């Protein structure tokens, strides 16, 4: 029997928990497939995409940092919201070739709704305006009135704010991140989303100082390694509703399974598998 082959392409990818999450899903669904990591830098990306294009057993692949934007130019089409978000995280092979789609925005939205319920928000703060920040802004379209977006340099945040208004957000501003700006913006927001790498292993710290966190605010951190970032720990201690990045990762993975196999696994089982991997890693790190 033929084995379907799937991959995650990025750099670095060796710490990804996705192979274990997909292995769990394949087992539950009785699918004969593998999901492997391909660590490749920007120079090597075109050759890898060409190789996967030529491999008929490859049903598709996921794309992560730093290739989510560049990969668009190596595909036959970019479909749906991936066009306006401007980033592709999933590639699907079909009769028409390789199609790039975006499932991060759905994963983000489902994670938010799963933990915080179907609330709407007056104002949301998004930290980071790369592919993940753009997916969050798109995912919030019918859930927020106003957006404040901050990024390290400010340029990408301003550009995303402009786009978000054209997508239908009533008001959006883009600013350069600083501790003072983030405290100011966070205290005015009922939802805070970290879509920057700040807080992940190797990028320790928090994008919002403690004094910006008030009880009742919903705080979603896309970072999942560690599971409880400094931002989430401070938010929990301040009485906020906290949502870790593993929720988004597993909902996004399930969207990809739908695209590749037309089947969905149990979200709770996928999360349990992710938690096992992350707990084992924390224990190893001492
Ligand atoms: N849980 C999940 O399923 C999931 C899915 C997707 C992404 N993520 C995570 O989300 C994060 C961002 O991913 P990405 O693909 O969007 O990365 P990216 O394209 O590299 O964008 C990162 C963004 O963060 C901003 N940034 C960096 N340092 C900052 C700081 N100190 N303060 C404020 N903003 C800062 C950058 O600002 P400039 O634009 O000015 O450089 C940029 O806009 C990563 O940690 C990734 O692992 C998680």
Question: Which structural traits does this protein have?
Answer:
six-stranded mixed β-sheet, alpha/beta, Rossmann fold, 10 helices
Structure description:
The chain has 286 residues and is of the alpha/beta class. It folds into 2 domains: 4-102 and 251-285, Rossmann fold, CATH 3.40.50; 105-243, NAD(P)-binding Rossmann-like Domain (Rossmann fold), CATH 3.40.50.720. The chain has 10 helices and 12 strands. α1 packs across α9, α1 (18-29) packs antiparallel against α10 and α9 packs across α10. The structure holds NADP nicotinamide-adenine-dinucleotide phosphate (NAP). NADP nicotinamide-adenine-dinucleotide phosphate binds at residues 65, 68, 104, 107, 127-133, 150-153, 156, 177, 195-198, 200, 207, 222-224, 245, 248-249, 252.
Name the shape in a single word.
Answer: globular
Percent in strands: 15-25%
Which ligands are bound? NADP nicotinamide-adenine-dinucleotide phosphate
N-to-C series of helices and strands: EHEHEEHEEHEHEHEHEEHEHH
Question: Regarding quaternary structure, how should these chains be classified?
Answer: single chain
Count of separate DSSP helical elements:
10
* Average predicted confidence as pLDDT: 96
Percent of residues in helices comes to: 25-40%
Please identify the top-level CATH class of the largest domain.
Answer: Alpha Beta
Q: From the coordinates shown, what is the CATH architecture of the largest domain?
A: 3-Layer(aba) Sandwich
Q: How many angstroms separate the termini?
A: 43 Å
DSSP, total strands: 12
Count of spatially separate domains = 2
Strand order of the largest sheet: 2-1-3-5-6-4
Low-confidence stretches: none
CATH topology-level name of the largest domain: Rossmann fold
Q: What composes the largest sheet?
A: 6 strands, mixed
Radius of gyration: 18 Å
Derived from helix and strand composition plus strand pairing, the structural class reads alpha/beta
């Amino acid at each position: 029997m033929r084995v379907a082959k799937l991959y995650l392409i990025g750099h670095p990818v060796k710490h990804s928990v996705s192979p274990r999450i997909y292995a769990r899903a394949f087992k539950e669904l009785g699918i004969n497939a593998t999901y492997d990591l391909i660590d490749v830098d920007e120079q090597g990306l075109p050759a890898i995409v060409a190789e996967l294009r030529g491999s008929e057993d490859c049903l598709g692949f996921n794309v992560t940092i730093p290739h989510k934007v560049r990969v668009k130019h190596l595909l036959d089409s970019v479909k749906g919201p991936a066009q306006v978000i401007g980033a592709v995280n999933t590639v699907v092979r079909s009769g028409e070739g390789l199609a790039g789609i975006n499932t991060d925005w759905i994963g983000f939205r489902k994670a938010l709704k799963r933990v915080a319920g179907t609330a709407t928000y007056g104002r949301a703060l998004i930290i980071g305006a790369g592919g993940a920040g753009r997916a969050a802004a798109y995912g919030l379209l019918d859930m927020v009135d106003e957006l404040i977006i901050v990024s390290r340099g400010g340029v990408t945040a301003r550009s995303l704010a402009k786009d978000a208004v054209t997508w239908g957000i009533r008001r959006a501003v883009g600013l350069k991140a600083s501790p003072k700006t983030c405290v100011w913006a966070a205290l005015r927001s009922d939802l805070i989303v970290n879509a920057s790498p700040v807080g992940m292993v190797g990028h320790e710290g928090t994008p919002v100082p403690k004094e910006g966190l008030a009880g009742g605010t919903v705080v979603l951190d896309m970072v999942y390694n560690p599971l409880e970032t400094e931002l989430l720990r401070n938010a929990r201690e301040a009485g906020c509703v906290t949502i870790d990045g593993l929720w988004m990762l597993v909902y996004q993975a399930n969207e990809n399974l739908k695209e590749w196999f037309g089947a969905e696994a149990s979200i709770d089982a996928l999360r349990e598998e992710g938690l096992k991997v992350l707990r084992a890693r924390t224990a190893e790190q001492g």
